[in-house]
Amino acid sequence: MRVTWSGGGNLSFRLDPEDEITGKASDEYPIKLAINSCSVGGVPDDAHPDLFAVAAWTIVAPWTRRRILFDRAVSAELAQVLHEGWGVEAGPVGAEPRRAGARLAISYSGGADSVAAATMYPDAPFVHFRRVAHSRVPNRWPHYRSDVLAKLAAKTGRELSTVTSDLEYTLAEPRPGYPEHHAVAAGALLLADQLDLGGLGFGYELGSRWLGGGRYLWRFTPDNPMWSPHGRWGRLFAAAGLHIVLPVGGVSEAVTMRLALNSPMKAQVRWCLRGTDGPCRTCGKCLYKELIQAAVERRPLDTPITADRPQARKYLKKPPYGGQEMIQYGLARVPGIENTLFGPVLDYFDVSEESTNWLEHCYPPALDEIPPEWRAEAAAFVDANAGLMSEDEVRRVESWGD
Ligand SMILES: [Zn+2]
Q1: pLDDT for 39-58, tens place per residue?
Q2: Phi (first) and psi of residue 243, to 5 degrees
Q3: Would you say the pTM of this structure is higher than 0.85?
Q4: What residue segments make up the domains of the chain, in order of their start?
Q5: Nearest CA to 245 among 364, 369, 85?
Q6: Which of 13, 256, 262, 382 qualifies as a cystine partner to 113, CB 3.0-4.6 A?
Q7: Which residues are close to ligand 1, an ion, with C-beta < 5 A?
């Protein structure tokens, strides 16, 4: 693989003979390459070469098999992490490592998890990734309203850098998206020198970090390769002087929902990519988040989606489900859930408020993973707003999927 950055944020890459246009993201999800160029707008062109290298790697890692040649020399430390983590030879080598900056920024999407992470650090600047069309790939997903999300981010009153990018269109399958989840940080990486960043906070919560949620595995994942500090991505970002920080990595989506709905940014919370004036209420994400919100607010489910709709169909099948811990939480707490489309799911689980109480508290090792300079603020916030898990509750996390 050969990568070239030109004019600041224009990336093009050329595959070597051993590279392939099919691959897997770090969560093992199969993906296919569409095109070998993309751009990241709103970034300076003089960032440290290791930042350019990591930003490129978030986009080309799934296709690269043996070696990667950057257009500017990277540090030996970064090349070593690429070798140990992915088995690739990286070069040329010759730069001094980047020194971590002093500030923590939040990779801000506007969703409840992201807002909750932001609420923990009231002074942290935001970097918002905004999808724009690719000049050479037709946009078959016009319902994705990134413009609405960007406007909401601007209304939060925070220091905000919005980066625009078409990098998601480098994916042909399953649909436009991040080649690696970390590609959402491409803009933040390139801004890290300018903003003096030493850490980047993501909204990944307990399920994503510790329970193998999302597209991943449904078991306890202390060595999560994407989000653990000692995993290959954690080490790579750290080598570039930008630590991956998960402020809400120890709490569930019930807690992040509660924090977001009680935060000063409540009016800007938006997890749905489709609605303009508000969430669309009809997509699968809206259904899942409505279940959580209804559980947090202790009220009946309010959704126009009926059991015969495609968005509901996955709950007619046997578990596991994505976000299964939150499905259980909702089943235990939403009044009248037995009379909703989730009714049949009750047959698969024996849930109660008591058995889902662990999802109200913070898993302590998640705080230990936050770099020392930002840990005390997170710990104080958790103490005041959620509390730590008991030993029994910790065991619920660590036996998840057994
Ligand atoms: Zn929606």
Answers
A1: 999 999 999 999 999 999 99
A2: -70, 140
A3: yes
A4: 2-95, 103-249, 255-357
A5: 369
A6: 256
A7: 272, 274, 279-280, 283, 286
